[in-house]
């Protein structure tokens, strides 16, 4: 016989005997819907489980060489793989991207061209002696 899914993470969460219920989960602190409180309790329970798992790995006397922090892995994934929510292409970002990518090339092209034109002018006037170079 297959039983239904077990209780959710929010239902399993109970305040610790040594720590009071967080203000975010205390219904007396604010008036919010039960669904919102349930979702917050589930998120808090997930964070608590991840923290406990990490603490167990850190304090294990036979710990592996690399202890992975699951919360940190999730954060790194969100920052690198899920780029679109943190970046929106707008005219300003497109302009800044073009300036940062093409601007240095244009700047150095102008500097080298001006230097070359200046040397060429001095050579034509006979005021510049080219140093001997084999190459």
Automatic annotation (TrEMBL):
GO terms for cellular component: mitochondrial inner membrane. It is found in: Mitochondrion inner membrane. It is a single-pass membrane protein. InterPro entries: NADH_UbQ_OxRdtase_NDUFB4_su. Its main location: mitochondrion. Pfam families: NDUF_B4. The chain crosses the membrane at residues 94-112. Keywords: Electron transport, Membrane, Mitochondrion, Mitochondrion inner membrane, Respiratory chain, Transmembrane, Transmembrane helix, Transport. Belongs to the complex I NDUFB4 subunit family. Accessory subunit of the mitochondrial membrane respiratory chain NADH dehydrogenase (Complex I), that is believed not to be involved in catalysis. Complex I functions in the transfer of electrons from NADH to the respiratory chain. The immediate electron acceptor for the enzyme is believed to be ubiquinone. Complex I is composed of 45 different subunits. This is NADH dehydrogenase [ubiquinone] 1 beta subcomplex subunit 4. It comes from Campylorhamphus procurvoides.
């Amino acid at each position: 016989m297959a039983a239904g899914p077990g209780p959710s993470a929010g239902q399993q969460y109970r305040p610790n005997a040594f720590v009071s219920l967080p203000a975010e989960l205390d219904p007396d602190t604010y008036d919010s819907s039960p669904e919102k409180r349930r979702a917050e309790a589930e998120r808090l329970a997930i964070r608590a489980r991840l923290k406990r798992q990490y603490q167990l790995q850190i304090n294990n006397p036979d710990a592996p060489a690399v202890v992975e922090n699951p919360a940190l892995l999730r954060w790194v994934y969100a920052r690198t793989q899920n780029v679109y929510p943190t970046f929106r292409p707008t005219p300003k970002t497109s302009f800044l991207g073009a300036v940062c990518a093409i601007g240095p090339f244009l700047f150095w092209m102008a500097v080298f061209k001006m230097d070359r034109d200046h040397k060429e002018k001095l050579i034509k006037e006979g005021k510049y002696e080219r140093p001997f170079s084999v190459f």
